[in-house]
C-alpha cells in the first residue's frame, strides 16, 4: 500500500525587507504567511473531512462484505468454507473475513455513526477487545528504567573499542582530562546510588 502524498498548498508570500508590512500591533513584519497558513489549514480540514467520509464508506463496505460472506458461508457444505474462501476470494484473509462477518452481525445492534475508522467500528462492536488502560506515564522512582542504560552501554562499547586500539595509558594527558571531566557527573551519580 502506497502512502498518500500531501497536496501542495499555496506558495509562501515572503515580502522583501524593504516592503515590510505592519501587523495589527504596528510592529513591522518581514514576511506575511497568513494566506499560506489559511490555505494549509483549509486543506488540512478538507482532507480530514474527506478521510472521515472515506472511513465511513469503508465501514459500510466492510459491513456489506461481512453480510455477503456470512450468507455465502451458510450456503457452502460444512467444512468447506475456508477452501471456498481461498479459491474464490484469495485477496481476503481468513482473519479479515471473520472480522467482517462479526462486524456485520454486531453492527445490527450497535450504533456505528460515531465510528471514523474500521478499528473504531471493530472496538465499538467488540470485534476487537478494548485496549487495556494505560498506566500513568510517570515512571516509578524505585523501578529500574532499562531504556536509560542504552546510552551507557553505547559509551561502554565505545570505550572498549577505543582502548583496544589505543590503551588508556597511551592517551594524551588532555584526552584523559577531557574524559575525566565528562565522567565526573557519572562518578557522582554512582556514589549517590551506592550510598
In short:
The protein has helices spanning about 35-75, 80-90, 95-105, 120-125, 150-165, 175-195, and strands at about 20, 30. It has about 200 residues and is mainly α. Among the domains are: about 30-125; about 155-195, no CATH class.
Structure characteristics:
195 residues; mainly alpha
In spatial order, strands of the major sheet run 1-2
Sheet/helix structural class: mainly alpha
Shape: extended
Q: Quote the distance from N terminus to C terminus.
A: 56 Å
Would you tell me the overall average pLDDT?
80
Uncertain segments are 9-19
As a percent range, the share of helical residues equals 55-70%
Let me know the number of strands: 2
**What's the Cα radius of gyration?**
31 Å
Largest sheet: 2 strands, antiparallel
Instruction: State the order of secondary-structure elements, H for helix, E for strand.
Output: EEHHHHHH
Beta-strand portion reads: under 5%
Query: Treating each run of at least 4 consecutive H or I residues as one helix, how many helices?
Result: 6
Amino acid at each position: 500500500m502506497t502512502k498518500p502524498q500531501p497536496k501542495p498548498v499555496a506558495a509562501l508570500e515572503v515580502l522583501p525587507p524593504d516592503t515590510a508590512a505592519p501587523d495589527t500591533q504596528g510592529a513591522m513584519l518581514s514576511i506575511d504567511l497568513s494566506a499560506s497558513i489559511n490555505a494549509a489549514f483549509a486543506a488540512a480540514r478538507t482532507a480530514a473531512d474527506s478521510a472521515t467520509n472515506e472511513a465511513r464508506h469503508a465501514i459500510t463496505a466492510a459491513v456489506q462484505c461481512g453480510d455477503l460472506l456470512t450468507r455465502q458461508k451458510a450456503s457452502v457444505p460444512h467444512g468447506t468454507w475456508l477452501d471456498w474462501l481461498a479459491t474464490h476470494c484469495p485477496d481476503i484473509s481468513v482473519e479479515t473475513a471473520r472480522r467482517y462477518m462479526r462486524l456485520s452481525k454486531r453492527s445490527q445492534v450497535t450504533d456505528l455513526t460515531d465510528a471514523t475508522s474500521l478499528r473504531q467500528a471493530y472496538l465499538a462492536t467488540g470485534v476487537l477487545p478494548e485496549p487495556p488502560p494505560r498506566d500513568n506515564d510517570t515512571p516509578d522512582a524505585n523501578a529500574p528504567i532499562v531504556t536509560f542504560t542504552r546510552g551507557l552501554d553505547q559509551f561502554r562499547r565505545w570505550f572498549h573499542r577505543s582502548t583496544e586500539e589505543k590503551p588508556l595509558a597511551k592517551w594524551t594527558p588532555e584526552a584523559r582530562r577531557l574524559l575525566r571531566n565528562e565522567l565526573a557527573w557519572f562518578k557522582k551519580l554512582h556514589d549517590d546510588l551506592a550510598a
